[in-house]
Amino acid sequence: MTMTIDVTRRGFMIGSATAGLALGFQVPFLTGRAHAQAGYPEEINAWVVVRPDEQVIIRIARSEMGQGSLTGLAQLVAEELECDWANVTTEYPTPATNLERGRVWQSYSTGGSRGIRESHEYVRMGGATAREMLILAAAREWGVPPGQCRASKGVITHAASGRSTTFGKVAEAASRLEVPTGVQLKDPKDWSIVGQSVKRLDTAEKVTGKQVYGADLKLPGMLNAAIRQCPVFGGTLRSFDEAAVASMPGVKKIVRVDDNAVAVVADHWWQAKTALDALPIVWDEGEHAKVSSASIAAFIEEGLTAKQAFVGNSNGDAEAALAKAERTVEAVYSYPYQNHATMEPMNATAVWTEDRCEVWCPTQNGEAALAAAAEAAGLPLQQCDVHKLHLGGGFGRRGAFHDYVRQAVGIAREFPGTPVKLLWSREEDMTHGMYHPITQAKLTAGLDANGDVTAFRVRIAGQSILAGVMPQRLSNGADMVAFQCYLPQGEHSIGYSFPNLLVDHAMRNPHVPPGFWRGVNANQNTIYTECFMDELAHAAGKDPLEFRLKLMGNHPKNAAVLRAVAERAGWGKPAADGIFRGLAHCTAFGSHTAACAEVSVTNGQVKIHRIVAATDCGYVVNPQQVEAQVEGSFVYGLSAMLYGECTVADGRIEQQNFDSYQVMLIAEMPEVETIIMPSGGFWGGVGEPTIAVAAPAVLNAIFAATGKRIRDLPLTKHDLGAA
Amino acid sequence: MARINVNGKTVEVDADGSTPLLWVLREHLELTGAKYGCGVALCGACTVHVNGEAQRSCVFPLDAITETDRIVTIEGLSEDGSHPLQKAWVDLDVPQCGYCQTGMIMAAAALLERNPQPSDADIDAEITNICRCGTYRRVRAGIHQAANEKA
C-alpha cells in the first residue's frame, strides 16, 4: 500500500472537491477524480499506474485481510503487464470512485474464497491491455509496428533495430492511448510470476508496527466512541442515566445509537469505555429474553423428524432403499454457534456533514460499506466514500455486515465535521457477532450384505444464513447454501455417488443472528458426512480409505487428493506407537481438498501431531501463500473443533472474551504438510476449502485412537479419558 | 502529569493513573504498534517490554510505572525493522492479517533475550499470544531462524 497518513501537518477540511485527500490520506488515486473530465492521465488504465521512476502501482479492488490475495491479484496483473515485480506496489481505489467510473473494478466483495477465482480473468486483462498500450506508445515513438516489439520486466525492445526503452519513459504517452480490445491472455504454461512463491507485498509494515489498521486510525480533532448494544438480540434501549457519567474525564456526549445501543463519546477511547462501564442503562430485552441453548437445541431437534423440508440433492429413492437395506446405520450430529473473533474488534471512523460523509474502516466489501455509510448518513452514495484499511482479520464478519459502519456514522452525525472513531470492546465483539449457524443432522445409511452403501440419507435441521442475512437469495424459500458439500454439482458438490441419495433441510431459525463464517456450511456438513462415512466403513468392517474410494469413481479429483494424503501420510502402514490416523475430503469453494490427521490421546488429552493436506485448486498463483492458508485454515477449523462454542442464556451470548471462548495456541499447532496439486482448467478457492477437512480428519483419528465417536462439538464437551 | 520512559525517551503523559499503558501508548503517544485485542491480558496483542520483560500492556496501569522503568514498544525494537525476529518474519512471510504480530514479535524478543536458543517446548510454554489467522507454524520457524542468526 502506498497510502500514508500525514494528518498532523494537514488541515482538516471537508466538502471540497477532493474531500478524501483533505483528510490527510494521500491516496494518489483520488487526484484522478479531480481530472474526471480529462480522463485519468496518471494511469495507463484503471488497473495500472506507471511512474516515471518505473514504480508500478497496481489497483486492487478486493480487500486484504491476511489471506494474501492483495499479492496474488497483483501477481496476476503483473504477469500480463510484463513489469519488473520488484517495482510493484498496490493501492485500493475507493468504492465511490468505482461507482463514479461505472464499476471499472467490478466487485469489491472479498468472501467465499472468490477474490482471485472470480476476478482473475479481468484483472489479467487489465495488465495485458496496459502492456499493449505501453508497447504501442514505444512503437509509435520509434515508427515501428508494435507487433515487432516485446515487453519484459518493464523494458520494451525492438529487436530488429536494437532499440529499447522502459515503461516509465513511455507511460505518459501510453496513458493517452485508447484501451485496446481483443488482447489475448497468456497461456498458463508461459506464466513466470503467477505460480511463483513471491513474497507478500504487505509484510514489512506488519512487523514494525507501522501498518495502520482501522483501530489505529487517528484523524485531527478525532473523538472516540465506545458502544454497548442490548445484550439480548432483538432487544432495545429503553433509557440511560446520562448525568451519572457526563462529568467523567474526557466525556463529550452520550449518544443513542439505532434503537438498541448507546455510545459514550470522549476525547480518548479509554475514557469513553470507562464512562460506558459506569453508565446505568435500562434495556427492553424484548421477546427473546428467555431463550437458552437448551431451548434452541430442542427447537432445532424437532426439525430432524419434521415432515416439511427443502430438498438439496436427491437421486433414486433413498427412503425405499433404506427400508429394503440389509441393515441401516443412523447417527445424529450437531454443530454449535461460533464467533469469528477477529483479532481486531469491529471499528469504523466516520466524519459527517450535511452534504458529505466519509468512513475509514476494515471491510471485506468496500461497496457494501459505502452503501451502509450512505444509508446511515442520509446522503446519496455520490456524497459518501469509504477508505479501506487492511483488516485485522475478517473471516466473514466484515463482508455482509456493516453494523459497525452504520453505528459509527450514526454517532458522527452528532458531531458534524468532527471525525469520530467507534471501537467495539472485545466483549461487545463476542456478544454481538454474526454467528456460525447452529445445525443438527441425522444421517442414515443402508448397507447391503457386502457392506456396500445402498442409500444415504441426510436430514439437516437448523439455521439458515441466507434467511438471516440476505433473504432475497433464498430459492423459493430454500437456502441452497445450507447444502454446501451436498449439492449434485458445482463448487460445493458432494464427492460421492450413492445409488440412492436424499439430502434435505428443515430450516429452523433461532433469534441469534447468523453469518458467513470462514468455511461457512462446509464446516459442519463435511464433519457430518466424513465422520459418518467413517462410521459406515467401520460398521461394514472395511478400510475407511477403500470404503470411500469405492464410491468416488465419478469424482476423480476428490479421489486424487484423498489418495495423495493417504499415500504421503502412510495410510495402511503402521503409524508410530500411540499415533492414530483419520481421513476426510470434500469439494468446497471450487477446490478439492483432503486431509489425513495423526493424533494421539493420552489420559484423555488429544494431541494433533501432524496433518497432511492436499488441495487441487485448479491453478495456483502463489504456492507459499496457499500453504499459509492451509495452515491458517486448520488453526481456525481446529480451534472451532476443540473449543469453539457460543452458548445462549437469557437470550444473550454467554462468552465474553478469550477465557470462555478459547482458541488454539502455538503449543497445540500440529505439523502441516501441504500437497498442492493443481490440475488446471478451473480456478478454485484457497482461503476456505481446507478448513472443512481438518476437523473431520482429526475426529476420525480420535475414533481410531479411542473408539469414541464425537458427534457434537466442541471437543471440550467430551471426556476422552473415559473411553 | 506522569513521566515515563518509552523507547529511550522520557515523555510526559496527561492521563488518569488508572489508564492502562496500552492506551497511554496508543492514544497519548501515538504508538499504535501495540494492539488492543482483549483488554484482559489473554491474547498478547498488546505485548511490550517493561525493563526487558514482556508485559501485556492492556492491564498495566500508568500508576504502576515509574520514570526509571524502561518501556520498549515494537516501534523501538529496532531503528529500521532490522531486529533478527523482524528480518526472519519478513523472510518467512510470517504475518497474515498481521494484527497480532507486533505483540507476537515482542513476546518472542523477550524470550530470546532470556533464552537465546529456545527449544520447541520453550516456545510452547512462553509464546501464548493468540493468532486467529493461524500463523503459528511460521512463528515457530521465525523464532528459530532469528535465534540461529543471533547465535
- Number of helix segments of chain A? 18
Annotated CATH topology of the largest domain in chain B: Ubiquitin-like (UB roll)
- What number of domains of chain B? 2
The CATH class of the largest domain in chain A is identified as Alpha Beta
Give the biggest beta sheet of chain B.
Answer: 5 strands, mixed
Rounded mean pLDDT score of chain B: 97
Shape of chain B: globular
Largest interface: A-B, 64 and 59 residues
Question: What is the terminal separation of chain B in angstroms?
Answer: 43 Å
Rg measurement of chain A, Å: 27 Å
Strand order of the largest sheet of chain B: 2-1-5-3-4
Spans of at least 5 consecutive residues with low confidence of chain A: 1-38
CATH architecture of the largest domain in chain B: Roll
Helix fraction of chain A, binned, reads 25-40%
- Cα(first) to Cα(last) distance of chain A is 53 Å
Please provide the count of β strands of chain A. 26
Structural class based on helices, strands and sheet pairing of chain B: alpha+beta
Q: What is the radius of gyration of chain B?
A: 15 Å
The strand line-up of the biggest sheet of chain A is: 9-10-7-17-14-15-16
GO molecular function (chain B): 2 iron, 2 sulfur cluster binding; metal ion binding; oxidoreductase activity
Protein name (chain B): (2Fe-2S)-binding protein
Domain 2Fe-2S ferredoxin-type (chain B): 1-77
Keywords (chain B): 2Fe-2S, Iron, Iron-sulfur, Metal-binding, Oxidoreductase
